[in-house]
Structure to design on (303 residues):
């Protein structure tokens, strides 16, 4: 499998994933420095960064990486080992598998860019698009009142036209940030036509943009994109719940979070996928980090 081609495919499909790269490996681990894999949002691993116990640790850590949108250096150590040199800032996972060995794996989130949909062809609309692209956002033009389903941000900068219709379409589509370029008086009149609920009103902004004393179209565009960045960095564009910490946009269509279970033998939290080792006993499914723990559980259960 060509991971570079696969990664580009995931980006084109706007699917979040984690790039995992083995930085260091200590024998007898089966991984080697430079081994790579892609970890999808459902816990699927494509590529190779180690055996099943290591994969379990990588899956669990990747969930945190995707939720927080921050890279992580994961140190996977064999149980009872302290031989691997300490690395400040690393997250440690103890590997209960008997194969031994230690690895350091760098996990880097690859999130779809925030989509900013712009309605209008005014100079302010053009400036919003230019600044949004400069911060690596994806910019789309709204034609009619059809709002792209993936747009977390909608900016109405037409100075007329069916502004209320576009705003209503954006709210109905679930956009988290809907901004109208207008004076306070005219903006209030447009919102009266929209008739937003209290929850929808919390997603509306008019006048839109940070108050930086902007006068020119370029300055107004800058103030709008700066406010979008502020909201995005504070987690205001997040589409799914997550743990505390910095959150980033997760596009609709990502699907539910992967299920997890605790290995009853070693206590490791494992992400449940089709390849996760398991047993069905008396109608109950028991999940394991690796075949070794499953065999040990079977032996103890029989005994």
């Amino acid at each position: 499998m060509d991971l570079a081609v696969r990664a580009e495919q995931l980006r084109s499909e706007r699917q979040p994933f984690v790039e995992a790269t083995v930085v260091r490996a200590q024998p007898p681990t089966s991984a080697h420095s430079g081994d790579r894999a892609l970890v999808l949002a459902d816990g699927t691993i494509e590529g190779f960064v180690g055996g099943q116990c290591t994969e379990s640790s990588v899956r669990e850590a990747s969930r945190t990486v995707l939720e927080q949108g921050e890279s992580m250096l994961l140190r996977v150590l064999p149980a009872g080992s302290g031989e691997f040199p300490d690395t400040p800032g690393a997250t440690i996972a103890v590997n209960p598998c008997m194969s031994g060995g230690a690895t350091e794996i760098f996990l880097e989130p690859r999130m779809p860019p925030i989509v900013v949909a712009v309605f209008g062809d005014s100079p302010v609309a053009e400036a919003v698009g230019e600044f949004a692209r400069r911060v690596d956002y994806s910019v789309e033009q709204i034609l009619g009142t059809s709002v792209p389903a993936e747009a977390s941000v909608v900016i109405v900068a037409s100075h007329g036209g069916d502004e209320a219709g576009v705003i209503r379409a954006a709210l109905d589509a679930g956009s988290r940030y809907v901004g109208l370029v207008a004076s306070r008086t005219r903006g209030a009149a447009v919102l009266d036509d929209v008739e937003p609920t209290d929850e929808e009103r919390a997603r509306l902004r008019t006048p839109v943009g940070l108050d930086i004393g902007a006068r020119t179209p370029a300055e107004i565009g800058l103030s709008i994109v700066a406010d979008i960045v502020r909201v995005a960095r504070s987690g205001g564009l997040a589409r799914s719940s997550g743990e505390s910490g910095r959150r980033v946009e997760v596009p609709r269509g990502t699907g539910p979070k992967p299920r997890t279970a605790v290995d009853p033998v070693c206590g490791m939290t494992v992400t449940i996928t089709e390849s996760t080792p398991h047993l069905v006993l008396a109608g109950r499914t028991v999940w394991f980090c690796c075949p070794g723990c499953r065999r040990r559980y079977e032996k103890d259960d029989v005994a």
